[in-house]
């Protein structure tokens, strides 16, 4: 009986909701028709000002506003500056900052190859600082990015994929490893961590600046 009453209560509410645009008289007719069919709803009659309630309060309470959802999430909300250009020259290198899609480490390799570039490698503290400053200026530092560093050959030895060389400069964070972790990424604090290569992150591609006719700028026939 209790369940039936609850179902009928919702039927009553839905019926009144469907009456938007009707006159008060027409709403009263709809009310009377429903209650005549289901006498047990007599006690649920209410004043006219309550007849337009759309849903029970309990149902409304599960709906969160966008701001409430954002406040409950630890994820970084990426907002690009107007006129943002993903291509940038920093020092002796050209970079492409892939912030339009989060992809696996393997997909990031492919995306950089399509740019005729290589997935990020950081040779020294100066390169690291230049990149960090650029990401900070663009308000995209905490977005988390793939690098090309990995330990596929040996668990305790990380190398840069484009060069095959060991990491002579490092910027490790704390407790940034986990099971099946082989690929290095830059976390939201701009520290390095190791994670599953199939995780999704943004990525940064890199290529050395080489003049069209070679480092000396002299063309040879």
Give a written overview of the molecule:
The chain is α+β, with helices and mostly antiparallel strands. It has 2 domains: 62 residues, no CATH class; 122 residues, Mannose-Binding Protein A, Chain A (Roll), CATH 3.10.100.10. Helices cover 29% and strands 21% of the residues. The chain is built from 6 helices and 8 strands, in the order H-H-H-H-E-E-H-E-H-E-E-E-E-E. Strands 1, 2, 3, 4, 5, 6, 7 and 8 form an 8-stranded mixed sheet that branches. A hairpin with a 5-residue loop joins strand 6 and strand 7. The protein is globular. The protein starts with a helix and ends in a 13-residue tail after the last strand. About 21% of the residues have low confidence.
The low-confidence parts are: 5-12, 14-20, 44-74
When the domains are counted, the total is 2
The overall pLDDT average reads: 74
Radius of gyration using CA atoms only:
30 Å
Distance between the termini: 96 Å
Instruction: Give the tally of β-strands.
Output: 8
Output the number of helix runs. Answer: 6
CATH class of the largest domain: Alpha Beta
Q: Main β-sheet: number of strands, strand sense, barrel status?
A: 8 strands, mixed
What structural category do the secondary elements indicate?
Answer: alpha+beta
Kindly identify the CATH topology of the largest domain: Mannose-Binding Protein A, Chain A
Share of β-strand residues: 15-25%
CATH architectural grouping of the largest domain: Roll
One letter per element, helices H and strands E, the order comes to: HHHHEEHEHEEEEE
Secondary structure: helix percent: 25-40%
Oligomer: single chain
CATH level-four homologous superfamily name of the largest domain: Mannose-Binding Protein A, subunit A
